[in-house]
Amino acid sequence: MRITLVRHAESEANFLNMYGSQADTGLTDRGRRQCAFLAQQRDRFDGARIIASDLARATETLRLVLGSGVDATFEQVWRERDFGGAAGMLADAARARYPALFDFEGGGWFAAKTEDGESLADVDRRVRVALEEIVARDDSHVAVFTHGGPIQLSICAVLGLDPRTHMRRFNVENTAMATLQSSPWGVVVTGWNDVSHLPSEERTGVFKV
To answer: Which residues pair with 2 in a beta bridge?
Structure first.
């Protein structure tokens, strides 16, 4: 079987460097252009069972790429992390108010959460269960339209890597695709951060020093 994980297109929160969390932030004009470019390769999803996060930026990406009438299952388990009180905050403000979320050197960041949000450890548990359920069904192809965090955690799960030390090493651009494939050795990674459908000026989410 094959699993294609697709990150949503650029959202308003991405553009503003804001924690979109589980808020229903829509796509930017650039995000909609990104979808149009990916839609030119929609045949890559022919015959796939479609799953998507139920958040607006993921559902809008799905519908712009595959059409408004696409048959899909919308699942909360594929949502981005719930940042609780940090949702909607700009990155610098979130760092100032919730320093434990950014305790990368001390190692506390993975288990840290706001008073009413999720830790990345919480997200990791739900994503692993969702991924295991997909693999157990053994469809020929499953495409999941989701968010950066769940994709990074899925890759760590498949590769047997500790997300506390490896998750942040996997960059995921907007509308990037990661591809997983079953093999005699289990599920393996056959594609990562594929944005070949985008011209360079439409790429976003590139790590910059």
So the answer is: 141, 181
| Listed residue (30, 7, 4, 33) closest to 20, CA to CA | 7
Do residues 143 and 48 lie in contact, with contact meaning Cβ atoms separated by under 8 Å?
yes
State pLDDT tens for residues 30-61: 999 999 999 999 999 999 999 999 999 999 99
Residues 63-79, buried b or exposed e (16+ Cβ, 10 A)? bbbbeeeeebebbebbb
| Annotated domain spans of the chain | 2-200
Place of tokens 């139920």: 54
Q: Does domain 2-200 have CATH number 3.40.50.1240?
A: yes
Q: Which residues, at least 6 apart from 176, have a Cβ–Cβ distance to it below 8 Å? A: 6, 7, 151, 193, 194, 195, 205
**Reported pTM:** 0.94
Q: What is the CA radius of gyration of the chain?
A: 16
Q: Which residues contact 83 (CB under 8 A, 6 or more apart)?
A: 19, 21, 22, 89, 94, 101, 114, 117, 118
Please name the residue that has the structure tokens 């909607």: 88
Instruction: Tell me the C-alpha distance between 80 and 191, whole Å.
Output: 21
Tell me how crowded residue 181 is: count the other CB atoms within 10 A of its CB.
Answer: 14
